[in-house]
């Protein structure tokens, strides 16, 4: 059986690229780190690191192993911290799932004011539904719903999916084509422009394109960035286009860095919901978080 300590040591070496730093981080000796990595390599049957310019560079097999084991290890570390004996007064803990941009726009600035513990999880909505039903999450913020019997959904706001441009972009030709109802020409013009998207999710682009041009987009964005907030910052005052929820760029629109190019002839509007279980031990804390979202200017 694989030893959990081998994997913890592997994770630390992978992230620090050093046996010495990993030993300090784990409070073990450097020979102990070497022993753990050697034992793990013997178990899996291949080398995990190559030493290049005084750094330990992970092999392709190591990258795969890291991606497979990272989330379980993080969960175990969280469990260890949560259940470690302490003399401090226990505080309620609320686990909340949502997309990264929604967290950054709404909840992030309020985190230091909470008198309870908060764990924020990002991920796909289908997984959030499962985790909520299984008790791993207490609250989710989602534009979708599911029919799981134990879950309740409450609508609280809406988001509009729009085409935006940096204000360094000349959109006069596009607006002329749209005004004259030359939709196909407008589509072709857009496909020749600079586009931003995210690596994880092109759903907004796909849905908007299909609703307004009756097909999936057949072009590749020029710039793939980590999240929608990055798109907004990159576009502000510069050239290019993207398709995003309107509430995520209100500040930049007000400041003149971004403009809404087109809402589409067939507008896409998502209803945002709170999702929670029918019975919850942290309902008071959940209600405080829900009130923050209700008071935000979506």
From TrEMBL:
Gene3D superfamilies: Winged helix-like DNA-binding domain superfamily/Winged helix DNA-binding domain
Alphabetical keyword list: Transcription, Transcription regulation
Listed Pfam families: HTH_1
InterPro entries in alphabetical order: LysR_HTH_N (IPR000847), WH-like_DNA-bd_sf (IPR036388), WH_DNA-bd_sf (IPR036390)
GO molecular function, one term: transcription cis-regulatory region binding
Domain spans labelled HTH lysR-type: 2-59
Xref: PROSITE patterns: HTH_LYSR
Domain of life assignment: Bacteria
Alphabetized SUPFAM superfamilies for the sequence: Periplasmic binding protein-like II (SSF53850), Winged helix' DNA-binding domain (SSF46785)
Claim: Cytoplasm is one of the keywords in the record: no
PANTHER family attached to this UniProt entry: HTH-TYPE TRANSCRIPTIONAL REGULATOR (PTHR30126), HTH-TYPE TRANSCRIPTIONAL REGULATOR CITR (PTHR30126:SF64)
Family label: Belongs to the LysR transcriptional regulatory family.
Stated name of the protein: LysR family transcriptional regulator
């Amino acid at each position: 059986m694989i030893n959990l300590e081998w994997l913890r040591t592997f994770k630390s070496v992978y992230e620090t690229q050093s046996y010495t730093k990993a030993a300090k981080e784990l409070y073990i000796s450097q020979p102990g780190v070497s022993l753990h990595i050697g034992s793990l390599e013997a178990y899996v049957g291949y080398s995990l690191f190559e030493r290049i310019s005084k750094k330990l560079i992970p092999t392709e097999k190591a990258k795969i192993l890291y991606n497979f084991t990272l989330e379980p290890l993080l969960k175990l570390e969280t469990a260890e911290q949560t259940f470690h004996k302490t003399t401090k007064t226990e505080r309620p803990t609320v686990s909340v799932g949502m997309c990264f941009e929604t967290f950054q726009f709404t909840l992030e600035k309020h985190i230091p004011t909470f008198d309870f513990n908060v764990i924020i999880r990002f991920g796909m909505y289908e997984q959030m539904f499962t985790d909520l039903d299984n008790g791993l999450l207490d609250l989710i913020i989602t534009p979708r719903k599911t029919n799981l019997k134990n879950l309740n959904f409450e609508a609280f706001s809406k988001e509009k999916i729009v085409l935006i441009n940096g204000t360094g972009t000349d959109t006069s030709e596009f607006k002329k084509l749209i005004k004259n109802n030359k939709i196909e020409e407008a589509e072709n013009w857009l496909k020749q422009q600079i586009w931003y998207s995210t690596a994880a999710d092109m759903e907004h682009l796909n849905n908007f394109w299909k609703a307004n041009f009756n097909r999936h987009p057949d072009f590749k964005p020029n710039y793939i960035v980590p999240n929608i907030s990055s798109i907004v910052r990159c576009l502000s005052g510069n050239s290019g286009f993207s398709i995003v929820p309107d509430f995520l760029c209100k500040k930049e629109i007000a400041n003149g860095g971004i403009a809404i190019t087109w809402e589409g002839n067939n507008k896409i509007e998502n209803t945002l919901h709170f999702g929670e279980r029918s019975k919850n031990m942290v309902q008071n804390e959940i209600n405080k978080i829900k009130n923050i979202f209700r008071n935000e200017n979506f």
